[in-house]
Protein backbone atom coordinates (compact mmCIF):
# COMPACT_ATOMS: atom_id res chain seq x y z
CA UNK A 1 0.00 0.00 0.00
CA UNK A 2 1.33 3.45 -0.98
CA UNK A 3 -0.04 6.89 -1.79
CA UNK A 4 1.76 9.30 -4.11
CA UNK A 5 1.41 12.84 -5.43
CA UNK A 6 3.45 14.78 -7.96
CA UNK A 7 3.58 18.56 -8.11
CA UNK A 8 5.28 21.16 -10.25
CA UNK A 9 6.30 24.52 -8.81
CA UNK A 10 7.75 27.52 -10.60
CA UNK A 11 10.77 29.69 -10.01
CA UNK A 12 10.28 33.28 -8.87
CA UNK A 13 12.69 36.14 -9.39
CA UNK A 14 12.60 38.98 -6.88
CA UNK A 15 12.27 42.56 -8.03
CA UNK A 16 12.57 43.83 -4.44
CA UNK A 17 15.18 41.57 -2.86
CA UNK A 18 15.11 39.52 0.32
CA UNK A 19 18.55 39.86 1.89
CA UNK A 20 19.00 39.54 5.66
CA UNK A 21 17.44 37.33 8.34
CA UNK A 22 16.19 38.30 11.77
CA UNK A 23 15.82 34.59 12.62
CA UNK A 24 18.01 32.05 10.82
CA UNK A 25 16.21 28.94 12.08
CA UNK A 26 12.81 30.06 10.74
CA UNK A 27 14.12 32.14 7.80
CA UNK A 28 12.43 35.29 9.09
CA UNK A 29 13.62 38.20 6.95
CA UNK A 30 14.73 41.68 7.92
CA UNK A 31 12.62 43.13 5.09
CA UNK A 32 9.67 42.31 2.86
CA UNK A 33 10.21 41.41 -0.81
CA UNK A 34 8.31 41.16 -4.11
CA UNK A 35 8.79 38.75 -6.99
CA UNK A 36 7.41 37.66 -10.33
CA UNK A 37 6.69 33.96 -10.82
CA UNK A 38 8.18 32.69 -14.08
CA UNK A 39 6.67 30.17 -16.47
CA UNK A 40 7.01 26.55 -15.40
CA UNK A 41 7.96 25.19 -18.83
CA UNK A 42 11.69 25.82 -18.63
CA UNK A 43 12.44 26.70 -15.02
CA UNK A 44 10.67 24.53 -12.50
CA UNK A 45 10.94 21.85 -9.87
CA UNK A 46 8.93 18.66 -10.14
CA UNK A 47 8.56 16.67 -6.96
CA UNK A 48 6.91 13.32 -6.27
CA UNK A 49 6.17 12.27 -2.73
CA UNK A 50 4.98 8.86 -1.59
CA UNK A 51 4.09 7.45 1.83
CA UNK A 52 3.63 3.81 2.73
CA UNK A 53 3.47 1.72 5.89
CA UNK A 54 6.00 -0.53 4.14
CA UNK A 55 8.71 2.17 3.93
CA UNK A 56 11.23 1.78 6.75
CA UNK A 57 12.90 5.22 6.52
CA UNK A 58 12.44 8.69 5.07
CA UNK A 59 14.40 9.06 1.81
CA UNK A 60 15.02 11.99 -0.53
CA UNK A 61 16.56 12.04 -4.01
CA UNK A 62 17.46 15.37 -5.63
CA UNK A 63 18.26 15.16 -9.35
CA UNK A 64 18.86 11.44 -8.97
CA UNK A 65 21.18 11.66 -5.95
CA UNK A 66 20.23 10.39 -2.52
CA UNK A 67 20.42 13.25 0.01
CA UNK A 68 20.98 13.20 3.73
CA UNK A 69 17.64 14.11 5.31
CA UNK A 70 18.83 14.07 8.92
CA UNK A 71 18.77 17.60 10.32
CA UNK A 72 17.85 18.99 6.87
CA UNK A 73 15.42 21.79 6.12
CA UNK A 74 13.54 19.33 3.92
CA UNK A 75 12.71 17.09 6.85
CA UNK A 76 11.75 20.15 8.93
CA UNK A 77 9.13 21.02 6.29
CA UNK A 78 7.93 17.39 6.15
CA UNK A 79 7.57 17.28 9.93
CA UNK A 80 5.57 20.52 10.10
CA UNK A 81 3.12 19.04 7.57
CA UNK A 82 3.06 15.70 9.43
CA UNK A 83 1.93 17.58 12.54
CA UNK A 84 -0.87 19.22 10.54
CA UNK A 85 -1.91 15.79 9.25
CA UNK A 86 -1.83 14.36 12.79
CA UNK A 87 -4.30 17.05 13.88
CA UNK A 88 -6.72 15.94 11.13
CA UNK A 89 -6.25 12.28 12.11
CA UNK A 90 -6.94 13.09 15.76
CA UNK A 91 -10.17 14.83 14.79
CA UNK A 92 -11.31 12.03 12.45
CA UNK A 93 -10.31 8.51 13.57
CA UNK A 94 -11.52 7.14 10.19
CA UNK A 95 -8.54 8.70 8.40
CA UNK A 96 -5.44 6.67 7.52
CA UNK A 97 -2.55 7.40 9.86
CA UNK A 98 -0.34 8.83 7.11
CA UNK A 99 1.44 11.02 9.65
CA UNK A 100 3.14 7.88 10.98
CA UNK A 101 4.18 6.50 7.58
CA UNK A 102 7.67 7.09 6.20
CA UNK A 103 8.04 9.27 3.12
CA UNK A 104 10.01 9.04 -0.14
CA UNK A 105 10.68 12.26 -2.01
CA UNK A 106 11.98 12.47 -5.56
CA UNK A 107 12.71 15.98 -6.81
CA UNK A 108 14.12 17.14 -10.12
CA UNK A 109 14.78 20.61 -11.37
CA UNK A 110 15.72 21.64 -14.87
CA UNK A 111 18.05 24.53 -14.12
CA UNK A 112 21.44 24.92 -12.46
CA UNK A 113 21.09 24.24 -8.72
CA UNK A 114 22.69 26.82 -6.41
CA UNK A 115 23.77 29.00 -9.34
CA UNK A 116 21.71 31.87 -8.00
CA UNK A 117 18.77 30.80 -10.14
CA UNK A 118 16.26 30.32 -7.34
CA UNK A 119 16.39 26.53 -7.50
CA UNK A 120 15.65 26.20 -3.78
CA UNK A 121 12.59 28.41 -4.22
CA UNK A 122 10.88 26.08 -6.68
CA UNK A 123 12.12 22.97 -4.86
CA UNK A 124 10.65 23.72 -1.42
CA UNK A 125 7.44 25.07 -2.95
CA UNK A 126 6.95 21.81 -4.89
CA UNK A 127 7.79 19.76 -1.79
CA UNK A 128 5.35 21.57 0.48
CA UNK A 129 2.62 21.72 -2.17
CA UNK A 130 2.85 17.99 -3.01
CA UNK A 131 2.82 16.87 0.65
CA UNK A 132 -0.14 19.12 1.45
CA UNK A 133 -2.06 17.37 -1.36
CA UNK A 134 -0.90 13.92 -0.25
CA UNK A 135 -2.02 14.59 3.33
CA UNK A 136 -5.23 16.31 2.11
CA UNK A 137 -4.47 19.33 4.31
CA UNK A 138 -6.86 22.21 4.21
CA UNK A 139 -4.17 24.92 4.03
CA UNK A 140 -4.29 27.82 1.58
CA UNK A 141 -1.26 29.15 -0.35
CA UNK A 142 -0.47 31.76 2.30
CA UNK A 143 -0.48 29.10 5.03
CA UNK A 144 1.69 26.82 2.88
CA UNK A 145 4.08 29.71 2.19
CA UNK A 146 4.92 29.73 5.91
CA UNK A 147 6.03 26.10 5.73
CA UNK A 148 8.03 26.59 2.51
CA UNK A 149 9.70 29.64 4.08
CA UNK A 150 11.24 27.42 6.77
CA UNK A 151 12.95 25.50 3.93
CA UNK A 152 14.14 28.54 2.01
CA UNK A 153 12.93 32.11 2.41
CA UNK A 154 12.39 32.87 -1.26
CA UNK A 155 10.35 29.67 -1.76
CA UNK A 156 7.47 31.23 0.20
CA UNK A 157 6.85 33.37 -2.89
CA UNK A 158 6.70 30.36 -5.27
CA UNK A 159 3.39 29.19 -3.79
CA UNK A 160 1.65 31.88 -5.83
CA UNK A 161 1.67 32.70 -9.51
CA UNK A 162 1.82 36.20 -10.92
CA UNK A 163 3.12 39.04 -8.75
CA UNK A 164 3.81 38.10 -5.15
CA UNK A 165 4.83 39.84 -1.92
CA UNK A 166 6.45 38.14 1.04
CA UNK A 167 5.58 40.21 4.09
CA UNK A 168 8.45 40.25 6.58
CA UNK A 169 6.07 40.21 9.59
CA UNK A 170 6.89 41.16 13.18
CA UNK A 171 6.09 38.07 15.24
CA UNK A 172 8.87 36.01 16.80
CA UNK A 173 7.24 32.73 15.73
CA UNK A 174 6.93 33.80 12.08
CA UNK A 175 3.16 33.41 11.88
CA UNK A 176 2.84 36.73 10.03
CA UNK A 177 5.86 36.19 7.75
CA UNK A 178 3.89 34.94 4.75
CA UNK A 179 3.45 35.37 1.01
CA UNK A 180 0.41 37.11 -0.46
CA UNK A 181 -0.69 37.84 -4.01
CA UNK A 182 -0.10 41.37 -5.27
CA UNK A 183 -1.73 40.68 -8.64
CA UNK A 184 -2.53 37.55 -10.68
CA UNK A 185 -0.89 36.80 -14.06
CA UNK A 186 -4.04 37.96 -15.85
CA UNK A 187 -3.59 41.48 -14.44
CA UNK A 188 -0.37 42.10 -16.40
CA UNK A 189 -0.02 39.17 -18.79
CA UNK A 190 2.38 40.82 -21.26
CA UNK A 191 5.32 40.83 -18.82
CA UNK A 192 8.24 38.77 -20.14
CA UNK A 193 11.47 37.56 -18.55
CA UNK A 194 14.67 36.34 -20.11
CA UNK A 195 17.35 34.51 -18.12
CA UNK A 196 20.90 35.04 -19.33
CA UNK A 197 22.91 32.16 -17.89
CA UNK A 198 26.34 33.69 -17.52
CA UNK A 199 27.71 30.92 -15.33
CA UNK A 200 26.10 27.69 -14.16
CA UNK A 201 28.66 27.20 -11.38
CA UNK A 202 27.87 27.06 -7.65
CA UNK A 203 27.46 30.28 -5.69
CA UNK A 204 30.69 31.59 -4.19
CA UNK A 205 28.93 32.44 -0.91
CA UNK A 206 25.65 30.76 0.11
CA UNK A 207 22.60 32.98 0.61
CA UNK A 208 22.39 32.19 4.31
CA UNK A 209 26.11 32.83 4.92
CA UNK A 210 26.09 35.95 2.78
CA UNK A 211 23.03 37.39 4.50
CA UNK A 212 24.53 36.85 7.93
CA UNK A 213 27.72 38.56 6.88
CA UNK A 214 25.80 41.56 5.54
CA UNK A 215 23.59 41.83 8.64
CA UNK A 216 26.66 41.61 10.87
CA UNK A 217 29.06 43.93 9.04
CA UNK A 218 27.45 46.27 6.47
CA UNK A 219 26.99 49.77 7.81
CA UNK A 220 24.81 50.66 4.80
CA UNK A 221 22.44 47.76 5.49
CA UNK A 222 20.28 49.40 8.24
CA UNK A 223 19.28 52.21 5.86
CA UNK A 224 18.29 49.61 3.28
CA UNK A 225 16.10 47.36 5.36
CA UNK A 226 14.66 49.95 7.76
CA UNK A 227 13.94 52.81 5.39
CA UNK A 228 14.50 52.18 1.70
CA UNK A 229 12.89 48.77 1.21
CA UNK A 230 9.66 49.70 3.05
CA UNK A 231 9.29 52.71 0.71
CA UNK A 232 10.11 50.63 -2.36
CA UNK A 233 7.63 47.91 -1.37
CA UNK A 234 4.71 50.29 -1.66
CA UNK A 235 6.12 51.95 -4.79
CA UNK A 236 6.54 48.54 -6.43
CA UNK A 237 3.03 47.43 -5.47
CA UNK A 238 1.70 50.67 -6.97
CA UNK A 239 3.74 50.17 -10.16
CA UNK A 240 2.38 46.62 -10.57
CA UNK A 241 -1.22 47.68 -9.86
CA UNK A 242 -0.89 50.55 -12.37
CA UNK A 243 1.02 48.35 -14.89
CA UNK A 244 3.60 51.12 -15.00
CA UNK A 245 6.56 49.35 -16.61
CA UNK A 246 8.90 52.35 -16.39
CA UNK A 247 8.54 52.53 -12.59
CA UNK A 248 8.59 48.73 -12.23
CA UNK A 249 11.83 48.54 -14.23
CA UNK A 250 13.59 51.41 -12.47
CA UNK A 251 12.73 50.07 -9.00
CA UNK A 252 13.83 46.57 -10.05
CA UNK A 253 17.24 47.77 -11.28
CA UNK A 254 17.82 50.09 -8.32
CA UNK A 255 16.94 47.35 -5.86
CA UNK A 256 19.20 44.79 -7.54
CA UNK A 257 22.04 47.32 -7.50
CA UNK A 258 21.46 48.16 -3.84
CA UNK A 259 21.40 44.50 -2.86
CA UNK A 260 24.78 44.03 -4.57
CA UNK A 261 25.99 47.28 -2.98
CA UNK A 262 25.32 46.00 0.56
CA UNK A 263 27.06 42.77 -0.46
CA UNK A 264 30.12 44.80 -1.48
CA UNK A 265 29.78 46.76 1.78
CA UNK A 266 29.96 43.52 3.80
CA UNK A 267 33.26 42.41 5.28
CA UNK A 268 34.85 40.47 3.69
CA UNK A 269 32.93 41.72 0.62
CA UNK A 270 30.56 39.38 -1.21
CA UNK A 271 30.99 39.59 -4.98
CA UNK A 272 28.27 37.90 -7.00
CA UNK A 273 28.51 39.92 -10.23
CA UNK A 274 31.27 39.41 -12.77
CA UNK A 275 32.46 41.42 -15.78
CA UNK A 276 29.79 39.87 -18.01
CA UNK A 277 27.08 40.80 -15.48
CA UNK A 278 28.35 44.37 -15.48
CA UNK A 279 28.39 44.41 -19.30
CA UNK A 280 24.69 43.41 -19.22
CA UNK A 281 23.96 46.31 -16.84
CA UNK A 282 25.66 48.77 -19.21
CA UNK A 283 23.87 47.26 -22.21
CA UNK A 284 20.43 47.68 -20.58
CA UNK A 285 21.03 51.33 -19.73
CA UNK A 286 22.37 51.94 -23.24
CA UNK A 287 19.29 50.23 -24.72
CA UNK A 288 16.89 52.35 -22.63
CA UNK A 289 18.72 55.52 -23.53
CA UNK A 290 18.70 54.63 -27.24
CA UNK A 291 14.94 54.08 -27.23
CA UNK A 292 14.33 57.10 -25.00
CA UNK A 293 12.22 55.06 -22.56
CA UNK A 294 12.75 52.51 -19.80
CA UNK A 295 11.74 49.37 -21.70
CA UNK A 296 14.16 46.88 -20.22
CA UNK A 297 15.21 45.99 -16.66
CA UNK A 298 17.85 43.70 -15.21
CA UNK A 299 18.08 42.00 -11.86
CA UNK A 300 20.72 39.67 -10.37
CA UNK A 301 20.35 37.29 -7.43
CA UNK A 302 23.20 35.67 -5.51
CA UNK A 303 25.20 34.93 -8.66
CA UNK A 304 26.33 36.46 -11.97
CA UNK A 305 23.28 35.40 -14.04
CA UNK A 306 21.02 38.16 -15.30
CA UNK A 307 17.24 38.13 -15.47
CA UNK A 308 15.79 40.72 -17.83
CA UNK A 309 12.20 41.96 -17.62
CA UNK A 310 10.41 43.64 -20.53
CA UNK A 311 6.96 43.75 -22.15
CA UNK A 312 5.83 41.52 -25.00
CA UNK A 313 5.34 44.55 -27.26
CA UNK A 314 9.07 45.34 -26.91
CA UNK A 315 10.31 41.77 -27.24
CA UNK A 316 11.29 42.06 -30.92
CA UNK A 317 13.58 45.01 -30.12
CA UNK A 318 15.06 43.29 -27.07
CA UNK A 319 15.67 39.97 -28.81
CA UNK A 320 17.14 41.53 -31.94
CA UNK A 321 19.66 43.44 -29.81
CA UNK A 322 20.60 40.36 -27.80
CA UNK A 323 20.78 37.84 -30.63
CA UNK A 324 24.21 38.77 -32.00
CA UNK A 325 25.87 38.63 -28.59
CA UNK A 326 23.86 35.81 -27.07
CA UNK A 327 22.90 33.29 -29.73
CA UNK A 328 21.58 31.02 -26.99
CA UNK A 329 19.03 33.57 -25.76
CA UNK A 330 15.78 31.69 -25.58
CA UNK A 331 12.14 32.53 -26.07
CA UNK A 332 11.16 34.77 -23.16
CA UNK A 333 9.29 33.32 -20.22
CA UNK A 334 5.75 34.31 -19.49
CA UNK A 335 4.48 34.88 -15.98
CA UNK A 336 3.14 31.67 -14.41
CA UNK A 337 0.00 30.83 -12.47
CA UNK A 338 1.75 28.99 -9.63
CA UNK A 339 2.09 25.39 -8.44
CA UNK A 340 -0.10 22.57 -9.68
CA UNK A 341 -0.34 18.95 -8.62
CA UNK A 342 -1.82 15.61 -9.53
CA UNK A 343 -2.04 12.40 -7.59
CA UNK A 344 -1.92 8.65 -8.05
CA UNK A 345 -2.96 5.90 -5.64
C1 LIG B 1 19.24 37.13 -3.57
O1 LIG B 1 15.78 32.21 -0.36
O2 LIG B 1 17.97 31.32 -1.26
O3 LIG B 1 17.69 35.51 -4.34
O4 LIG B 1 16.31 31.68 2.99
O5 LIG B 1 18.75 31.15 3.08
O6 LIG B 1 17.24 29.81 1.61
P1 LIG B 1 17.52 31.16 2.25
O7 LIG B 1 17.84 32.19 1.09
P2 LIG B 1 17.27 32.27 -0.37
O8 LIG B 1 17.72 33.76 -0.72
C2 LIG B 1 17.36 34.41 -1.87
C3 LIG B 1 18.08 35.69 -1.97
C4 LIG B 1 17.94 36.40 -3.29
C5 LIG B 1 16.85 37.48 -3.23
C6 LIG B 1 15.43 37.00 -3.32
O9 LIG B 1 15.12 35.95 -3.92
O10 LIG B 1 14.58 37.74 -2.78
From TrEMBL:
Coiled coil: none annotated. InterPro entries: GHMP_kinase_C_sf, Mev_decarb, Mev_diP_decarb, MVD-like_N, Mvd1_C, Ribosomal_Su5_D2-typ_SF, Ribsml_uS5_D2-typ_fold_subgr. GO terms for biological process: isopentenyl diphosphate biosynthetic process, mevalonate pathway; sterol biosynthetic process. GO terms for molecular function: ATP binding; diphosphomevalonate decarboxylase activity. One of its GO terms (cellular component) is cytosol. Pathway: Isoprenoid biosynthesis; isopentenyl diphosphate biosynthesis via mevalonate pathway; isopentenyl diphosphate from (R)-mevalonate: step 3/3. Residues 193-345 form the Mvd1 C-terminal domain. Signal peptide: none annotated. Pfam families: MDD_C, MVD-like_N. It catalyses: (R)-5-diphosphomevalonate + ATP = isopentenyl diphosphate + ADP + phosphate + CO2. Gene3D superfamilies: 3.30.230.10, GHMP kinase, C-terminal domain. Residues 9-179 form the Diphosphomevalonate decarboxylase-like N-terminal domain. Keywords: ATP-binding, Lipid biosynthesis, Lipid metabolism, Lyase, Nucleotide-binding, Steroid biosynthesis, Steroid metabolism, Sterol biosynthesis, Sterol metabolism. Its EC number is 4.1.1.33. Belongs to the diphosphomevalonate decarboxylase family. This is Diphosphomevalonate decarboxylase.
